[in-house]
Structure formats: structure tokens, C-alpha cells
Amino acid sequence: MFILENIRLAFGALVNNKMRSLLTMLGIIIGISSVITITTIGSSLKTTLATNLNSFGNNGFYLRYDVKPDEDGNYDYSRLTSDDFCTSEMLDELDKRFEGKYLVCNETALGAGTLRNSKNQMLTVGLDGMTEGSIKAQKAVLRLIGGRYINDEDGKQHKHSCVVSDVFVEQYFLDGSDPIGKSITIDIAGLCNTEFVIVGVYKFPAAFEKQLDPGTALMDKTTYVYVPYQVALDLTGQKKADSKYPQINVRADNYDKEQCQRELQNFFDEMSANTNAEYVVNSDQDDQKQNDMILTIITVVISVIAAISLLVGGIGVMNIMLVSITERTREIGVRKAIGAKSKTIRNQFLIEAIIMCLTGGGIGILIGIINGLLVGIIGTKLIYHFFPLYAELVTINVKPSFLAIFISVIFSLLIGLFFGTYPASKAAKMNPIDALRYE
Fold first, then answer.
1. Are 121 and 219 in contact (CB under 8 A)?
2. What mean pLDDT comes out for the span 130-147?
3. Three-state SS at 244
4. What is the Cα–Cα distance from 44 to 38, expressed in whole angstroms?
5. Rounded to an integer, what distance in angstroms lies between the CA atom of residue 40 and that of residue 33?
6. Torsion over CA of 257, 261, 267 and 271, rounded to 10 degrees?
7. What are the phi and psi torsion angles at 270 (to 5°)?
8. Who contacts 436 (Cβ-Cβ below 8 Å, separation ≥6)?
9. DSSP assignment letter at 217
């Protein structure tokens, strides 16, 4: 009952001195809003990175090379040559041993090609040779709308299959017929004139569309045709057996990532036994964890710096409470004279300080969340303005940190308790006779 009465009196004191109360709470508001804004941005960056990585399929592993130490334990990097790189034989052994579980991500550009439609209109396309792993890594961009993707089996059988865009279908198949299974003949500049069979159609990404001028006519648009990686090697005269890879990316979809990483590490340890190189397998998750750790450290450090203003706000609360006690000395004397206990007086002013800090903290939390939302909106607009090619692929997720909000509420409460204790104790120790005589 007494607590509810003290809370009512505390709010009454705040309302009666609106401007003074607002100025007193300003330090708390600025400090809490700064902390919430910073933690919201940090949390949102981590969520955004995780979301966008997952949209591309966070199932990738990549091979990093380091030199093995010599007999004296020294690291002589001059010993590391291209002969120590991963070879196609190693990748074939990987595929054979794990029966297609791991998809290698390789691609090579074939350059530009031309062909003519039924009206003898010339079309220009770009050709890329891609493995099944590379295609799957770009599913978020190359969204299939018909047929299937090219795969490694097409490459092993040297099939001239291809995946084309919906824009290309409009350009080439003027009668609106189904392109799946149809053959097209492309004159690849500097290489040859060869036939491909369409096995799939992808949605031409808006990110690619923005590379074109707004007024580009349909027939003048250049789209991309994707063919099996092995077929691209065949057409360029490259021999797979001679290939050495300074960097290897591998995908493993729908498998336990930690187990895959251990499995790959053991495999490449075995493969590199007779080389000067030490192969280290890293994963996309490793990169994400490292990014999260860096963002967390930065967020915590900046939040601590911002929280220093809370101490300034707490001192302001103590100062204004001392002034308030001086102004209400006679009120304290009257209450004591009619029987109010020192404990009751102490609780009244302590609750008043806590209410002031919690109110300021609540306003600060609200402003901090609004600031975070505004940063998200502004960030999205900046991406669309400065990086329009990637705007469609990047989704900014604004996510307030509920832990930071909870800590802010507790911190506001503690500030009220800490900085309100001395003024409240001073009020409780007043002599009622001296207080009644105070003018």
C-alpha cells in the first residue's frame, strides 16, 4: 500500500516539474538510447550477414594452403610451388570416395557468342562453364523457373547441355514454344560454332538487368548461357588432368557441417602427405563466427563508451534529488511530525529517484529502437542508391537486442538505487523540528 502511494507521489513530483524532470532524465535518455541504438545495429548486422549467407546456402568449404615446416621447424615459403596445389586427380578421388557428397565449385568463362533467331535477328550471349557446385552456390541469383540445372553428370558424359535465361527464351523462341529439349547453335568468338541442348531456364536477375541501359531493346540485351564445366574445358582445349587449383571451394548440402569439415580435413591431409603444402579446410560458418565475434567486440566496446554518459545522468539525478529535498524540507518536517517514519521518508525519495531513472530508461529504449529502424531504412536506401546491382540480393534485418533492453532496464534501476540512496537517506535523517523551522 505504502509502495503504491510512494509511486503515485513520485509521478506527481515528475509531472509538477516537467521541464526539470526532463532535463534531469536527459543524461539517462541519451545514454540508454545510444546503447540500444548501437546494440540494435550490431545485432542487425549479424542477423543480416547470417540471413544473406544462408540465402546463398551456407554449406561451403574452402581450401587454404600453408607450407609445412622443415626439419628445423622453420617455415620456408619459397618451397611452396604450383606443384603443391590441389590437382584434378585429388578431386576425382574425393568424388569417388564420397560418391558425390561433395560438389566442387569451379567455373570458367568461354567469352561471348552469337546466334540468330527465326527472324534472322542476331543475339549476343555470354557463356560460362560451371560445375554443379557453382550452380548451386548461385541458386539465390539464378532462380530456376523451368527444367533443371546443369550438373556434374552432364560434364562427365560431355553433354552439350545448357541453362538459358527467360529473356533469352523471349529473344529466340518468338513463337512462345517450350524451350526445354530444344537445340541452339552458338558461334563462340575465337573458338567454334557448336550446338547446345537447353535443359533449364532461369529467371534473369534484376541485378543483371540493371547493368543494362533502361532503354535497351529486348533484342539488344545480352544474357548468360551456362554450360557444364567439363564441356567448357573441352571447347577451350584445356585438359582436366593438367589442372592445378590454387583455390578450391566445395559444397556439401544437407549434411552435418562440422562432420563434413573434419572429413574433408582428413581427406586433404592424406592427399597432401607427399607435398610441401599443408591444406587447411575452412568453412563459411568459420567466417560467419569470426565476423560475429568481431561485431560483438566492436558493439560491446562502443556500448561501454556510450554507457559512460549514464554515470553523468546518474549524477544529475542525485543533484536534482538533493535540490528537491531542500525545496521540500518543510513537507518532510510535517510528515515526520504527524508520525511518518524515517524508513517511509527514505522509501518515498528513493522510489522517486528510481521512477525518474526508469522513465528516462524507457524513453531511451524507445528512441534507441526507433533509431535502429531508421538506420535500417537508411541503409536499405543507400544500398539501392550506391549498389543497385546487389540491392535485390541483400536483405537488411533490423533486430533490437532484447538482452540489451533487459540490461538497460536493470541498469536504470540500479542507477536510481545508487544515486538516489544518499539524497533519500539525507531526507530520512532530518530532524522534524529543524525541518519545520526551515524557510
1. yes
2. 82
3. strand
4. 10
5. 10
6. 140
7. -65, -45
8. 330, 333, 334, 337
9. -
